[in-house]
Amino acid sequence: MFSKILIANRGEIACRVIDTARRMGVATVAVYSEADSNAAHVALADEAVAIGGPAPKDSYLLGAVIIDAALKTGAQAIHPGYGFLSENPDFVDAVVAAGLVFIGPSADAIRAMGLKDAAKALMEEAGVPIVPGYMGANQDPDHLAAQAEAIGYPVLIKAVAGGGGKGMRLVERAGDFADALASAQGEAQTAFGNPAVLIEKYITSPRHIEVQVFGDGQRAVHLFERDCSLQRRHQKVIEEAPAPGMTPEMREAMGQAATRAAEAIGYAGAGTVEFIVDGSDGLRADRFWFMEMNTRLQVEHPVTEAITGVDLVEWQLRVASGESLPATQDQLTITGHAFEARLYAEDVPAGFLPATGTLSHLQFAPDCRADTGVRAGDVISPWYDPMIAKIITHGPTRAIALGQLARALEQTQVAGTVTNLAFLARLARHDGFARGEVDTGLIGREIDSLAAAPPVPPAAQALAVIAAAGLWQGEASGFTLWGALRRPVMFDPAAAIYVHGAGHISVEIDGVTQDCVLAEDGWRVDGAKTGASMQMDRASVTIFMAGAHRFDIPDPLERGSSAETSDLTLAPMPGLVKSVFVTTGQNVSAGDRLAIMEAMKMEHTMLAARDGVVAEVLVVEGAQVEAGAALIRLEEEE
Q1: By the 8 A CB rule, do 39 and 12 touch?
Q2: Helix count (H) and strand count (E) of the chain?
Q3: What is the dihedral of CA 34, 40, 43, 49, to 10 degrees?
Q4: Three-state secondary-structure class, residue 321
Q5: Phi, psi values for residue 485, rounded to 5°
Q6: What pLDDT score was predicted for residue 184?
């Protein structure tokens, strides 16, 4: 076994690897960018080495710098985590050439699966079923359009070097193909440096089921399946294991196909073979097809760990250090059911825009596993993925585990940034999801109800007024001889409070009065126990009561400023201006593309709010802008 390893990653996965390494008596070395100098993974590791600027290209993608850090600190091996360099075969070659061990598959195995078109051809040779489609080298747009016609709409355009939903577009009719192709190729070029795409038949009732495999370079086992069908724009949201509705026959067929895929490339370490499944007539062993293989540990690996009792990171370290597979196939079994929900800093009602901010408060439910790379006081940076944590629950049945997930989400407390917590909680309580009726289109069909801003309970609003007035602990100052003292509240112009005494306050909002009393078990509103807690910072107050309810606190010294109008397009988040499509004097129509911003690994298109003429282009391509920065101004309407 290694005595010291370096972790070439950051955030949640770096902390996850450190936890297992520490339990195994293995020392760890963290690497960090300028933006991560005070990050949680740096604090947890035994040693830490600075490797460059905040942009990934200046730090976490600098393979030579990371290898040098490993050599200088005496690390014997490098764990890549996921993302960044984890599936870069050139990095693997460099690690091995430096006399170090790469904790993962060989460079040849990564290359074999790195391009989707070549991987599918290899899998077809190995007897693994593949989705009908075009995987050729001819990337001429007219040729690709003809192939799409031959396959039959709807089709899916996918970057051959892709992952994480980038470079992927669903096209439902021929007239939309050209624009979708250009968009997919542009995103693929930016994300992977390779604009090539393949075309696949789109399955109309698709489920995304993947199989966890583990190999030692000669043989492989599978650790059963995960269902990742609950997705938004090809990004996984909630994962579970095992897959609902799975039959023993299909599990056997999928497991055998996955291990054949791993053994065909001499796979060593943890990997995932992803399948697209036609769920229109239940799960059938003749209706699943290979999509791709992820040659690394997956974000959703904890649900597999929960149902098998296996620590996959421990297995990675043991096999990479020279041990054979720790278990045979017949020794692996499934116990219970598990779910994982991905908690992100994002503004769901605004279209899932990534958010930034300082986490003034972070607390997880007591009865769940929470894998996180941040702490209260940490900053959610625009440089990296905005994941806050993964919330994992495990129970004896699917219904129990899902109930645990819903409760854990409702009890999780985050303040300092907006999150998708309410969205996740709604999903966990969704009747169709509870029945196991899952497919990749569920969120899209239900998006209006799932993504709507959660209703604010009147009691939460009243308690927010109390908190903003500085009376959360119930103290009251001043006195009156004849009645309760009325105080206006700058926090809410429609609100006023009447202080009856310490711990007894009436809150009037829009003419409706609620009686609030601070009892031994916390604030009670109109006699009802609330169980509420509060977190307040300079700009907001958050009331935690059956979810989180955030209220902005106006700055009395800040002059009113005009909000975004149809004349002005503002940056919705900090990020990079990747493309500008208009020039001064140009006529535009409502819905026309004005610019593309890139933030937190995603592209966001800015559209014209109305017909008009461009008066000013206020940014240039390549500019890094803050949230709220003016990008494009249209001439005023007459």
Answers
A1: no
A2: 17, 40
A3: -30
A4: coil
A5: -85, 125
A6: 94
> CB count, 10 Å around CB of 146?
13
Give the number of other Cβ atoms within 10 Å of residue 17's Cβ: 28
Q: Which of 389, 319, 270, 282 lies closest to 101, judged by CA?
A: 319
Q: Which CA distances in Å does 514 have to 455, 498, 562?
A: 18, 10, 34
Beta bridge partners of 225: 211
Tokens of 531: 């169980």
Token output for 632: 């494009």
Burial of 223 (0-12, 13-18, 19+ CB in 10 A): buried
H or E stretch covering 568: strand 568-570
Contact in structure between 147 and 100 (CB atoms under 8 Å): no
Catalytic residues: 296
Residues facing residue 209 across a β-bridge? 227, 275
pLDDT reported for residue 95: 98
CA atoms within 13 A on the CB side of 127: 8
* pLDDT band at 486; cut points 50, 70, 90: low
Whether 480 has a pLDDT exceeding 60, the answer reads no
Task: Quote the tokens at residue 158.
Answer: 């996918």
Tens-place pLDDT, residues 331-373: 999 999 999 999 999 989 888 888 888 999 999 999 899 999 9
CA distances in angstroms from 304 to 212, 309, 338, listed in the order given: 8, 8, 8
Phi, psi of 12 (to 5 degrees): -60, -45
Phi, psi of 504 (to 5 degrees): -135, 110
Structure tokens at 563: 């909000």
Q: For the chain, give the percent of residues with pLDDT over 70.
A: 95
Angle of CA points 451, 455, 457, to nearest 5°: 155
Global confidence as pTM? 0.81
> Is residue 562 very low, low, confident or very high in pLDDT (cuts 50, 70, 90)?
very low
Give the model's confidence band at 559: pLDDT under 50 very low, under 70 low, under 90 confident, else very high. Answer: very low
Strands 630-634 and 587-588: unpaired
pLDDT of residue 165: 75
Q: Which residues make Cβ contacts (< 8 Å) with residue 156, sequence separation at least 6?
A: 168, 169, 170, 171, 199, 200, 201, 202
Strand locations in 489-563 (E): 495-501, 504-509, 512-519, 522-525, 528-529, 533-536, 540-544, 548-552
pLDDT for 477: 52
Extract the tokens encoding 21.
């390494």
Contact (Cβ atoms closer than 8 angstroms) between residue 187 and residue 176: no
Query: Of 259, 251, 207, 206, nearest to 225 (Cα)?
Result: 251
Size of the chain, expressed as the number of residues it contains: 638
Across 412-527, the runs of DSSP E, i.e. the strands, are 413-415, 485-488, 495-501, 504-509, 512-519, 522-525
